[in-house]
C-alpha cells in the first residue's frame, strides 16, 4: 500500500529558502508546474506494493519528453521572468521532471535556479484508496464514494487526506515564500492537487470557486500556471499552459 512520504532530513519542518535581501527585486512571479506524465497517469497499475509507493512512481517516456520541453520553455524566458529558485515535491516523478528540465537549461547556457525539496509539496494522499480509479471506488466501496461526492474537498479517505488538509500544508509553503526576500521568481514543481490548492489560496477561492476550477479541468502533465504579485496579492496570468508540450 502506498505510504506518506517520510520527512526529508535535509528539509524537514519548514525549510529556509533565503532571508537575504535581493539586490535587484524586479517582478514577483510564481510559477507552478505539474510533473510530466507518470506511469500511473498512463494507466499502468502498480504490480507490487513497492511500485505503489507514491514516492517512487516514475515518468513515462512521454513524461520525460514533456519535462525536456518544459526546460526548453524555461530556457526561452527573459532574465526578468526566469525562476530564481525551484521548490520541488519529494516524489520521484516531480524530481525527475525538474532534473530533465534543468538539463535543457544547462544545455542552453542559462543560469540554473537553486532547488529545494520541500516535503510539504507531495500529492494528496488518498490512504487505502490510493491508485484505485474512481469508477472502481464507486463499485467496490459505494459508501466511501458517496461520502466523497457529498463533501469533495473535506472528505478524508481512510488513512488519507482531504483537499483542505493539502491546502493547509501548501499555505505553509506560501508563508515561507512570502518571507523569502531574496528570490523574487519562484517555480513550484508538484502535482495537480497542489496546483488546485495554490489557486484556492492565492486567488481567495471558496469551496464553490475551487470546485469550479476543478470542473473545468485540473492542470495537465508538465503544464505551467503563473501568477504575478500586485499590491501584496497575486493575479493569475495563465492556467494549465501547454503550448510548449509535445503531442506524443
Automatic annotation (TrEMBL):
What class does this enzyme belong to in the EC scheme? Answer: hydrolase
Show the stretches that span the lipid bilayer.
Answer: none
**MF (Gene Ontology):** hydrolase activity
Know the name of this protein? Answer: Histidine phosphatase family protein
Q: Which SMART domains match?
A: PGAM (SM00855)
Do you know which Pfam families this protein is assigned to?
Answer: His_Phos_1
- Start and end residues of each stretch annotated as Disordered: 1-26
Asked if the keyword Hydrolase belongs to this entry, the reply reads yes
Q: Which UniProt keywords apply?
A: Hydrolase
Amino acid at each position: 500500500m502506498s505510504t506518506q512520504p517520510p520527512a526529508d532530513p535535509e528539509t524537514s519542518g519548514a525549510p529556509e529558502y533565503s532571508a537575504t535581501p535581493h539586490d535587484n527585486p524586479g517582478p514577483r512571479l510564481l510559477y507552478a508546474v505539474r510533473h510530466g506524465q507518470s506511469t500511473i497517469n498512463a494507466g499502468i497499475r502498480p504490480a507490487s506494493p513497492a511500485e505503489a509507493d507514491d514516492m517512487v512512481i516514475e515518468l513515462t517516456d512521454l513524461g520525460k519528453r514533456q519535462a525536456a520541453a518544459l526546460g526548453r520553455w524555461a530556457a526561452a524566458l527573459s532574465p526578468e521572468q526566469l525562476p530564481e529558485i525551484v521548490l520541488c515535491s519529494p516524489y520521484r516523478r516531480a524530481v525527475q521532471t525538474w532534473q530533465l528540465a534543468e538539463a535543457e537549461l544547462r544545455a542552453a547556457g542559462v543560469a540554473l535556479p537553486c532547488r529545494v525539496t520541500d516535503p510539504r509539496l507531495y500529492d494528496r494522499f488518498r490512504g487505502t484508496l490510493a491508485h484505485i480509479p474512481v469508477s472502481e471506488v464507486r463499485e467496490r466501496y459505494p459508501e466511501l464514494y458517496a461520502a466523497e461526492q457529498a463533501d469533495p474537498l473535506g472528505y478524508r479517505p481512510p488513512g488519507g487526506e482531504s483537499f483542505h488538509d493539502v491546502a493547509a500544508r501548501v499555505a505553509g509553503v506560501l508563508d515561507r515564500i512570502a518571507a523569502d526576500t531574496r528570490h523574487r521568481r519562484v517555480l513550484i514543481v508538484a502535482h495537480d492537487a497542489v496546483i488546485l490548492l495554490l489557486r484556492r489560496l492565492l486567488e481567495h477561492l471558496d469551496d464553490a470557486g475551487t470546485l469550479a476550477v476543478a470542473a473545468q479541468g485540473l492542470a495537465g502533465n508538465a503544464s505551467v500556471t503563473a501568477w504575478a504579485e500586485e499590491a501584496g496579492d497575486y493575479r493569475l496570468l495563465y492556467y494549465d499552459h501547454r503550448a510548449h508540450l509535445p503531442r506524443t
